[in-house]
């Protein structure tokens, strides 16, 4: 078979697409692997053979939108691997949504030791357990690698050192067993896992994605197509929870969010009058750096010894800490409420048929957050969708499910080589926006035009779709 490389247009080339992209000179292009696991009917075989494979991050099918693979979802089985931050996770999910296994190795002790995520130590911890985590996921699913249809892995955003461990493992498995591989956007996975648990959730919908490193509101038009309505201009809400927990002397082995939430139950949420951030900004962007400073000053004003754990505090000292925790949580979530209310109004103008708002990410496990946001969403005649806490924090299920969603429409890479050199440069995207900015919500303090390192997932897919249409015309 003859392949020829085509020169990308200036618009496409600026997207930094992998130079290894190829386009078929003939519609008879076949992937290197002919015996892929998905169950494909004879009538769809020719379409499958015309699938074009890009770099892991572009993952674009050459099938026309009007065509679809006649896949047997029950026959699809995907292994998902997640190592973007401080948890090593793997899961096996069937195409019909059945979770066959889920394994997570926590780095709680490291978090407590360093007072947060230490990238190098986190990478080493991932490397020590990744093989066992993946093997345990397969064993609990009563499957072997030969039973898989594909491997999905988080390639960004996240900590580069940590991402590399997961991607390297995924490519080894895919290469050894001749499996397609799907690169997954971490934040898209947080949004899409809601579709696994809420069968009525269809596009378009809204999503508030809140975690230790991310704080974004997006409008999900369709798979891979997102408009970013708002983001944080400095710190995410999860970072603020973690720092507050650390300064209050809480046990970080269970992460800052749950620790603050528990202590806040003992306090008066209006005892400390913190200012709500960005009250005068009529957009949907967030800021938690100032609130963190307010908390630190409140702790200093009450002479709280941050080196003394709350478990050893006096009764009065514990009450002071609880009051600060409750007051912080109230204002931090009030900031979410105000921005989400405006974002819903914006989203309904763009997509009037929206019925759901997803709240996902580690902070979405907080019951106070869920309760307050549910009031906002119901007042707008929408339905709040929150995955269970086990699927809000980083996990392999969300990666496997997102991989399945993209695999169904042909967005995947062919199997990598069985052996890759030790110095192989993996395509990792530590800073990778999910969607394109909504013009009205653009923040000059942190515009994606300067903050991004990679083009957004949405822009890549749109560019590849456009390129696909051009090649079909030729």
TrEMBL record:
Compositional bias (Low complexity): 50-59
Biased composition (Polar residues): 38-49
Superkingdom as given in the UniProt entry: Eukaryota
UniProt cross-references to Pfam families, sorted A to Z: TsaD
Record-linked Gene3D superfamilies: 3.30.420.40
Gcp-like domain location: 98-401
InterPro entries, alphabetized: ATPase_NBD, Gcp-like_dom, KAE1/TsaD, TsaD
Keyword field contains tRNA processing: yes
Catalytic activity: L-threonylcarbamoyladenylate + adenosine(37) in tRNA = N(6)-L-threonylcarbamoyladenosine(37) in tRNA + AMP + H(+)
Annotated segments matching region Disordered: 38-59
Record localization: Mitochondrion
Cofactor(s), names only, from the UniProt record: a divalent metal cation
Record text on cofactor binding: Binds 1 divalent metal cation per subunit.
Swiss-Prot/TrEMBL keywords: Acyltransferase, Metal-binding, Mitochondrion, Transferase, tRNA processing
NCBIfam families the record matches: gcp_kae1, T6A_TsaD_YgjD
PANTHER family documented for this protein: TRNA N6-ADENOSINE THREONYLCARBAMOYLTRANSFERASE, TRNA N6-ADENOSINE THREONYLCARBAMOYLTRANSFERASE, MITOCHONDRIAL
Quaternary structure and partners: Homodimer.
Function of the molecule: Required for the formation of a threonylcarbamoyl group on adenosine at position 37 (t(6)A37) in mitochondrial tRNAs that read codons beginning with adenine. Probably involved in the transfer of the threonylcarbamoyl moiety of threonylcarbamoyl-AMP (TC-AMP) to the N6 group of A37. Involved in mitochondrial genome maintenance.
Similarity comment text for this entry: Belongs to the KAE1 / TsaD family.
Protein name: Glycoprotease 1
Organism of origin: Brassica napus (Rape)
Gene that this sequence comes from: GCP1
